[in-house]
Each structure stands twice: as structure tokens, then as C-alpha cells.
Amino acid sequence: MSLYFTKDHEWIDVQGDLATVGISDHAQHALGDIVFAEAPTPGRQLKKGEEAAVVESVKAASDVYAPVSGEVIEANAALGDDPSIVNQHPQSEGWFFKLRLSDPSELDGLMDEAAYTDWIKTL
Amino acid sequence: MDPDTISTLPLDDWHRRQGARMVPFAGYSMPVQYEGIIAEHLWTRSSAGLFDVSHMGQLAVHGSGVDRALEALLPGDLLGLKDGRLRYSLLLDDSGGIVDDLMATRRGDHFYVVVNGATKAADIDYLRQRLPAGIVVDHMKEQALLALQGPRAAEMLEPLAPGVSELVFMQGGAFTLAGQRAWISRSGYTGEDGFEISVAASAAEAVADTLLAGELVKPIGLGARDSLRLEAGLPLYGHDLDRQTTPIMADLGFAVSKRRRVDGGFAGAARILGEIDQGPLLRRIGFTLDGRQPVREGARVLDGEGSEIGRVTSGGFSPSLGQPIGMAYVATAAAVAGGPLTLEQRGKLFTATAVPMPFVPHRYHRKGN
Question: Which GO BP terms apply (chain B) (predicted)?
């Protein structure tokens, strides 16, 4: 498995041609208390960079973008019951959706965890 | 906003030491949250929260006949306001549009007026232009303003400023707090019992430390201030109120005092008295939503045919109720409590219910309770 990050603060955990997507700990911290999260419907074809999910904090709404292209194969149903899991466990139980990658070469442009950690220090 | 124009509050260092996340707001770097908006919100509803509202404009308006002079611009009864009493009022333009909302206190020979932070410079200009020569508007730049809000605020503040618990809602007085001279009023904008405390900026840290020393008080940021005032059904200038809205549209008819309804004589009176008589075209209402997704400011309100009949002016998630709530202006015919409303946000439709405000009951300390 490999873990990548985007400059929009999504993470993507890739195993073979399957990937799990969520938002980073940095992102959940910046958003504050999350009160609503909506993942994309399974079967939806996402293009890299497309708006895929919505996350709302008490104060504001934000989009979650597809880090790479692919077909949504599962949405995290737990987000509907308790969106605060994104605050508590952003990089595990608070995942948003799973994708089947259509173009794994798109991963090349993403950051690994060390690069992302360094990059957010510059923000 | 240009970062060069951002000013710092007297408590800037203090907020940072308390772990605040600072954001630009109304020209100042302000604390938006400390531990988290929901926790701070619920703390204020159950104990006592300390807010720094020093960005707001504190004015002293002096001069012979100051009450009558201010009445030319405001629809409140200031002539009948007793010493040490506050009134919520509105600064109006000649077409009845709201220039700002404010609190006016008769304080001996002058009026102490607190206006919004983002509008204070324009308000001062407007007052100076419109008030007669001989009425002086003094911007009290050397004063900080703190708010202590919540059901345990009075028990917490009484030992520090003996006598404050005898104040009733919308009454103020001079006290000594932490060895500092303070003007304390029983007022606020959260729907809770509580106090607003004006002290010299140089004393603000000492006062804030004293207030925070007990177990009952936590510092609260702007984020929770906004969700608290929304639950309390209180409009926010620049969002729910502006020059396109009148007091009657804004459902603030109570701010047009009885005597003024008869006598008129305030800016925009012809239009406002006409709206009292015939009803406004649009009216501010509250709404609730099922589910968890908030509908925010700017969303459209639609009728059954999909035509726009209004706009959402404040929307968010109510931490106390655990559901989304908001305020909107809608065509008066559609402003029926209990009625369904269709809202459109980013192409998605939501079914809302118009409800009476406040969403969470006020707990002001009125006479006899």
C-alpha cells in the first residue's frame, strides 16, 4: 500500500488498483467541528480534480476533490450517522469513499506523507 | 483584506496565549475559536463564556438635547429612557434603510452607544454629519469591551464586582472590577443572561485574567458568538441587516417605540410607518431543516413554481438543537410559521420549515425573575 496527499488536503491510500480517499488531519483541524459530510454515490465516474464530496463545518462548506480518476465503489456510510468521525479519525475511520483507479499514472504527481508534512509547514 | 490594514486588539497576545486561532474580521485579527466552536457554544449555554468584542465601536455622544438629537436618526424612545438603561436601536437612512444596529445607554448627561466593528467608521461619519452642531461624537478608542455570557455569569461576576447581580436585563452601571473602573451592563447578543464590560484597554488583560481564573469561565471565539446569536434569532449587521432592509422587514418592529409610531420624526419614518400599517413586501423569518446539511447565506428561497421569493441571510448548524437553522428574507405571503419553504443551494433543493424565533429560548434576567 502507498499513501499520497494532494495540495487540496486529500489523502489517498492505494492498494493495487483500489484506493481509499479522505481529508488530512491538517484539513479537519482547519475546518473545525464537522457537522455534515456527503460522499459520492457508488458507480459515479470521477475525473481527477473533480468535486467528489462535500464537507461542512459549523462555519463553512468545503469540497473534497477526487485526487485521481476512477469509479466510486463505496461511500463511507458512517459519515451520515456521525460526521464528527472525520475530526476524530481523519486518516482512518473518517475516510470518504473508495475508488477503482482508471489511470494509476496520475498518482505520480501527488506528494508522499513526508513531502506533504513539509509542505503544510510552509502554508 | 489587505493584511497591512489589520489592527490588533488590546488582548491580541492574551488570545494567542489561550490557544486561539486568529482570523481577520472587521479590520482586526480576532479569535475565531479556541478549543472548538461546538464545545465553546455549549459551554456558554451551560456555564459562562468570555468574549472579546473590543472591535466594536464605543461612542460617547454629548451635548445639550442629545436625546432629542439622536431621536432624529433612531426610531427608539430615547427621551423616555431612564439613566443607566439601554435600548436596542437602529441607525436609519432617509429611506428607512438600516445603517447599523446599536445599543444606546443613557449615562448621566450623555449617551453611550455601542455600534458594530465593521461599520463604526461610517457610523461615526454619519452621526457627525447628521447631528446638529453642539452634539459631539467621541470615539472611545481607549476602551476595550468584553462580554461574559451564560447562565452562571452572574454568580461568577458578583464576587468580583459586588452589586452587578442586582442589574436587570438592559440596565448598566459603574463598578470596580479587578481594581479597575468598569462600566458593566446586563446585556449581550447570545440570548443568555450575561454582562458587557467596558474597561480601559490598558486594564483589559488584568480583567480578562480575573474573569478566567474561576472554573466557570472559558474564552469563547467569534465562531460560537455567531452560532449563539443565530440560535437566539438575533440578526447580524451586514448579513441579516443592511441598507436594503428596514426595521419592519427585519422583524424589529419592537425597536420602533410606541411614542415614535405616533409622532414619527425619525429618518425614514414615512416608509417605516407605512410598512407598520400595510405590512412590508419582504420579512425576515427563521427556518429549520431536516437532516444535517446547513443551507448558508446567499441560498435562494423558491416558490412552488421555482421562482425566487427570497434569500437566506444567515445559515448554520445549531449546536444546541443538533440540526441546521437559518434566517431568510421571504415575500411576506410566504412568511407563515409552520409553512414549508424550498431552498436552493449549489443546485440542490432543500425542504425547510418556517419557524418562530428564537430557535433557543432567551434567558435574559428580567425584572421579577
Answer: glycine catabolic process; methylation
